[in-house]
Amino acid sequence: MGEASRTGTVLGIDIGGTGVKGAPVDLTTGELTADRVRITTPQPATPESVADVVEEIAGKFSATLGDSTIGIAIPAVCQRGVARSAANIDPSWVDVDVDALFTKRLGRPVHVVNDADAAGVAEARYGAALGVPGLVILTTLGTGIGSALLLDGQLIPNSELGHLEIDGYDAEKRAAQSAKKREELTYPEWAERLQRYYSHVEGLLWPDLFVVGGGISKSAEKFLPLLELRTPIVPAKLRNGAGIVGAAWLAREHGS
Questions:
Q1: CA–CA separation, 204 and 209 (whole Å)
Q2: In the predicted model, is pLDDT for residue 1 greater than 90?
């Protein structure tokens, strides 16, 4: 991929369980070039209802987009533009050709990716994993646990490390931020569960770095120092903007 394909401004849109966010991204710096637009995720969050919101957000930036591909991050396993799962959105997404749906609705090429993968790419290009060799694992701690694997900066898509079975449980049911809220766990209590989770992942994959994203990462000093791992573990730098930035980067990469 040539250097020219890493520059320019591309619209990134991040579809979440509670909000759909979008902004144009300067791929030279990884910074948003306009204020982010956020619209509440419709309920039920069906593909067609979410497409309405995506179309509205894209319309707000249409004057500055040219004919570039739009990057869209969704909370689902995404194989060649087709959703294969549905996390925190309507189950009707499963097996929908999301690339085709959004391309038709927006009248321009789109590239659809998993939201955690988008965040991982953003951190590798502009954030906490920039220049880190070897295997980096990003995890997003929120309603569930999303994951992204990057080997020497290259994405290995659609990892689902939040769904590892640990001690008889789907890992995210006990270790996600939602479990902390639901069970009113203190940070030390939650850190015990995170310790079990990250130790397990560490033993399976032997990563060179863990990056922890999601909104809770802004409170990283309250729980990351409590973990005892052989792998360095650091908070994400781009936080809630990572999905937008990574989706934009991958759209340019895909369209180049």
A1: 14
A2: no
The whole-angstrom separation of Cα 208 and Cα 222 is 23
- Calculate the alpha carbon distances from 221 to 65, 212, 216, 234, 242 in Å: 39, 12, 10, 10, 20
| Preceding peptide of 188 cis, ω within 30° | no
Structure pTM?
0.93
Range 3-117+241-255 has CATH code 3.40.50.2300:
no
CA 73 to chain CA centroid, Å, is: 7
pLDDT in tens, 239-255: 889 999 999 999 998 87
Structure token digits, residue 50: 């979410």
Q: Name the CATH topology of 131-236.
A: Nucleotidyltransferase; domain 5 (3.30.420)
Two structure tokens written together for 104: 């038709």
